């Protein structure tokens, strides 16, 4: 994880099938990089959120944003994150991937915000650079209990997106 530069890489999506360790990896990365984000690191579990309209509220609750203060949840989050160096970890983004434009808006408005998301599917971001810094992860149990081709298909992929 030494290759993640919070200034250049602002959105990282860990993708892979359920149970492969995306959440554990995201939490470990957050703990390891915590010192680089002096404003804070927040973990937002989205497994119970199925309505994309509720994602910003979930982020706001965890980040301590005053969502009632402004007319827009995105604006309230942008004010909360501001110019601070924040790491936002979004777990299980696949079921609410439609919120991606709002996340893009947050990244545009908050120059030091970085987002680390986990998803069973890709987020389809327009700035995707699949070959740049890609890593494939698979647990040793996974490889030993399945055929090589099945293990190859089930590996977690890390996709880096930059602005």
Describe the model.
This protein is α/β, with parallel strands linked by helices and 163 residues long. It has one domain (9-162): 3-Layer(aba) Sandwich (Rossmann fold), CATH 3.40.50. 32% of the residues lie in helices and 21% in strands. It is built from six helices and six strands; from the N terminus they run βαβααβαββααβ. It has helices at residues 22-33, 55-63, 73-81, 100-109, 140-145, 148-153; strands at 9-15, 40-45, 86-91, 114-119, 135-137, 156-162. A six-stranded mixed sheet has the order 2-3-4-1-6-5, with helices on both faces. Helix 4 (100-109) links the parallel strand 3 (86-91) and strand 4. Helix 3 packs parallel to helix 4. The chain is globular, with a radius of gyration of 16 Å. The protein starts with 8 loop residues before the first strand and ends with a strand. The model is unreliable at 125-163 (pLDDT under 50).
């Amino acid at each position: 994880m030494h290759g993640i530069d919070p200034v250049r890489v602002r959105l990282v999506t860990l993708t892979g099938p359920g149970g492969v360790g995306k959440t554990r990896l995201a939490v470990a990365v957050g703990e390891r990089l915590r010192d680089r984000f002096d404003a804070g690191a927040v973990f937002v579990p989205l497994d119970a959120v199925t309505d994309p309209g509720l994602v910003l509220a979930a982020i706001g609750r965890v980040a301590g944003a005053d969502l009632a203060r402004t007319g827009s949840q995105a604006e309230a989050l942008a004010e909360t994150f501001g110019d601070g160096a924040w790491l936002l970890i979004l777990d299980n983004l696949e079921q609410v991937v439609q919120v991606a434009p709002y996340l893009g808006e947050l990244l545009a408005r908050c120059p030091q915000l970085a987002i680390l998301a986990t998803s069973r599917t890709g987020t389809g971001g327009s700035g995707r650079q699949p070959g740049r810094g890609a890593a494939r992860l698979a647990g040793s149990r996974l490889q030993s209990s399945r055929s090589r081709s099945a293990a190859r298909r089930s590996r977690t992929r890390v996709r880096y997106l930059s602005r």
